[in-house]
Design goal:
- The chain is an alpha/beta fold.
- It has two domains: 237 residues, Alpha-Beta Complex (Spore Coat Polysaccharide Biosynthesis Protein SpsA, Chain A), CATH 3.90.550.10; 233 residues, Vaccinia Virus protein VP39 (Rossmann fold, 3-Layer(aba) Sandwich).
- Helix content is 39%, strand content 18%.
- It is built from 14 helices and 15 strands.
- The protein has an eight-stranded mixed sheet with strand order 8-11-10-9-12-13-15-14, sandwiched between helices.
- Strand 14 and strand 15 form a beta hairpin.
- The longest helix has 29 residues.
- The termini are far apart.
């Protein structure tokens, strides 16, 4: 089909006979140079015939028909496929019921052009009184949905709105294949996948009036399905974060120049996580890393470093906690365990570098090359003198005035008590002759106090600039921040 426009406006319809023609004419009057594609799901009110007539009247209007009501999400997928297949550069999606005003489409396109971001969305949460005429129930459900997408999916944007601009040239077609939802959950799932793959999302404030023409298509059943899908995404993000990422070359693991010795035996810790005795612990530890530790890490790293900072993660493990930071900072990850590094690069394909190394001897890492260095749940496995040596090695790699951030489990941590109980239970049920099960190497140097933290960091060449031990991570790790002298 011949096409001159590089812009497509996609509008799914079901029982929109009273809106389709008016919306089409108002959009056309804006003279945006856009093609318009209606996708009708077999509307019994004659909407399909109306959009066919519009397609005959206007050369820039096209009509697509489906056999029945197959879901708003699948309709949007059809529109996205059509846009890619016909080589459009920009795709706008919107509703047909005038909750999205044609003038907002023009404004959103201006924002997209001005910012150059691959995704721009209209947001109901950027200004007061943005939901005029909505009843209390619908307003409450909307804010509950926003609360859940913010806190479970880590999406600060309006994730359930349909008014969007996609710059298709900047977004690989295959990305939308990662989105499985056919219903209303398509909106937050598609934004989640875009966000997890590092695509910037711009917002523009809009007001969303109560539907004036017709009635809402959102049923209680669809609300329940969307809630269930949100929970499934949440758990999938914890257990298989890489499943949302586009296949891309993984960063190589840079080998150590000298053979490394691992007297603490970290390789078995990372390779035996699927043994029956360890499976439950590994799952719980994974959930805790993503819910509490990652959030705590993000808070303190953002507090002490700017976006794009060069950071060294000394003792990185599997990198589950770095999945967000690795897209915002330039992280070089170092660990003595190759199995851990294999997991790290799958979890963090955007990492700047991944290196096989010993944090006691960071000889392969250039001195003075990082803005800061950090680790989590590492130093407690070493002696006092070794901890000082680790901090000195980290200090050697950071620039003058750079910082180290150490997450150091406290001796009164809740996790210490829980692990003691678990080990006692395992020992109680252990059969005679069977070796003891230990879920990780011994924690021989749990932190006792702020004074101890100060003494260690000062001995390593830092000034203590912050110390925190509290409920942010459920009273597990003290956060020790030192500034290089």
């Amino acid at each position: 089909m011949p096409r001159a426009s590089r812009l497509l406006v996609f509008i799914p319809t079901y029982n929109e006979a009273g809106n389709a023609e008016r919306l089409c004419r108002e959009l056309s009057a804006l003279e945006m140079g856009a093609d318009i594609l209606f996708c009708d799901d077999g509307s019994p009110d004659g909407t399909g015939q109306i959009v066919d007539e519009l397609a005959q009247e206007f050369p820039h209007v096209h009509a697509m028909h489906r056999s029945g009501k197959l879901g708003i999400g699948s309709a949007h997928q059809e529109g996205i496929r059509y846009a890619y297949a016909h080589a459009y550069e920009t795709l706008v999606t919107m509703d047909c019921d005038f909750t999205h005003q044609p003038a907002d489409v023009a404004r959103l396109l201006e924002v997209a052009r001005a910012t150059g971001q691959p995704v721009c969305i209209g947001s109901r949460y950027m200004k007061d009184n943005s939901l005029p005429g909505w009843n209390l129930m619908r307003r409450s459900l909307t804010f509950l949905g926003h609360f859940l997408t913010v806190n479970l999916l880590r999406l600060p944007q309006d994730a359930t709105g349909a008014l969007r601009v996609y710059q298709l040239g900047a977004i690989p077609r295959e990305l939308f294949d990662r989105v499985r939802s056919c219903g209303y959950s398509f909106f937050f799932e598609s934004l989640f996948v875009l966000h997890r793959n590092g695509f910037a999302i711009e917002e523009m404030p809009i007001a969303l009036p109560a539907r004036t023409y017709g009635s809402s298509k959102m049923s209680w059943r669809e609300t329940g399905r969307s809630a269930l899908r949100l929970l499934k995404l949440y758990w999938a993000a914890i257990r298989q974060p890489e499943s949302f990422l586009l296949a891309s070359p993984l960063p190589p693991i840079l080998e150590a120049e000298q053979p490394l010795q691992d007297p603490q035996g970290w390789d078995p810790y990372w390779t035996r996580s699927q043994e029956k005795s360890r499976r439950a612990y590994s799952f719980i530890a994974s959930v805790y890393r993503r819910l509490a530790i990652r959030r705590n890490l993000n808070y303190f790293i953002h507090k002490h470093f700017r976006p794009g900072a060069q950071l060294l993660h000394a003792g990185c493990g599997s990198g589950q906690v770095d999945s967000e930071l690795s897209r915002e900072m330039r992280i070089t990850a170092v660990d003595i365990s190759l199995p851990a590094l294999e997991s790290y690069r799958r979890n963090n394909p955007a990492a700047a570098a991944i290196r096989h190394g010993d944090i006691l001897h960071l000889d392969d890492v250039a001195g003075g090359s990082f803005d800061g260095a950090y680790n989590l749940g590492v130093v407690e496995h070493f002696t006092h003198d070794q901890i000082v040596q680790i901090l000195r090695e980290m200090g050697r790699t950071v620039k003058p005035g750079g910082k180290v951030v150490i997450f150091w489990p406290h001796q009164r941590a809740t996790s210490v008590f829980v692990l003691k109980v678990i080990h006692r239970v395992l020992d109680f049920f252990r059969r005679q002759g069977v070796p003891q099960v230990r879920l990780h190497p011994p924690e021989i140097s749990l932190l006792k106090s702020r004074d101890q933290a100060r003494e260690v960091v000062e001995k390593a060449g830092f000034n203590l600039v912050e110390y925190y031990f509290g409920v942010r991570d459920l009273l597990v790790q003290a956060v020790v921040v030192g500034c290089k002298r």
